[in-house]
Amino acid sequence: MRYLLDTNIIAEPTKLQPNINVINALTHYAEDIAISAISWHGLWYGTDRLPASRKRTTLEIYLTNLASTGMPILPYTQEGGKWFATERSRLTTMGRTPAYADGQIAAIAYTNNLVLVTRNTSDFIHFDGLILENWFE
Q1: Tens of pLDDT along 31-77?
Q2: Angle at 107 (CA atoms; ends 121, 89), nearest 5 degrees
Q3: What is the DSSP letter of 98?
Q4: 45 Cβ partners below 8 Å, 6+ apart?
Q5: pTM > 0.90
Q6: Which secondary-structure segment (H or E) carries 133?
Q7: Which long-range contacts (CB under 8 A, 24 or more apart) does 115-124 make?
Q8: What letter would DSSP give residue 94?
Q9: CATH tag, 3-133
Q10: Are β-strands 115-117 and 3-5 bridged in parallel, bridged antiparallel, or unpaired?
């Protein structure tokens, strides 16, 4: 594994007009990607909140197929919890309190030595030692 995908990256193929750069990178790096259990939760939570519809069915099929590919879904571990606690304390002292889910995703990327791929780099830029890429660019 080389990359941890944020929710906005793994959801991109479900868009009516997905970003071609993201689609190309997903294809090119298919063997090198993982997602966090935090993003997995977010994807299913968003899907489960939709009313019964073609869109919901399409998303359920996408997520079920995604799970069947064997793409790793990485957990939030004790090591990640410690790293995030330290970073959250540091950032809060600086007046930059991170969103909790973002901190968990960052911790999973950091503790697994993965590049975090996200469109929302500003949500993660202040975490020490975290490497970011934006495949939308």
Answers
A1: 999 999 999 999 999 999 999 999 999 999 999 999 999 999 999 99
A2: 90
A3: P
A4: none
A5: yes
A6: strand 132-133
A7: 115/2, 115/3, 115/4, 116/3, 116/4, 116/6, 117/3, 117/4, 117/5, 117/6, 117/9, 117/25, 117/33, 118/5, 118/6, 118/8, 118/9, 119/6, 119/8, 119/9, 120/6, 120/8, 123/98, 123/99
A8: T
A9: 3.40.50.1010
A10: parallel
Phi, psi of 134 (to 5 degrees): -120, 105
Cα-to-chain-centroid distance, residue 57: 22
pLDDT in tens, 111-136: 999 999 999 999 999 999 999 999 99
HSE toward the beta carbon, residue 135, CA cutoff 13 A = 28
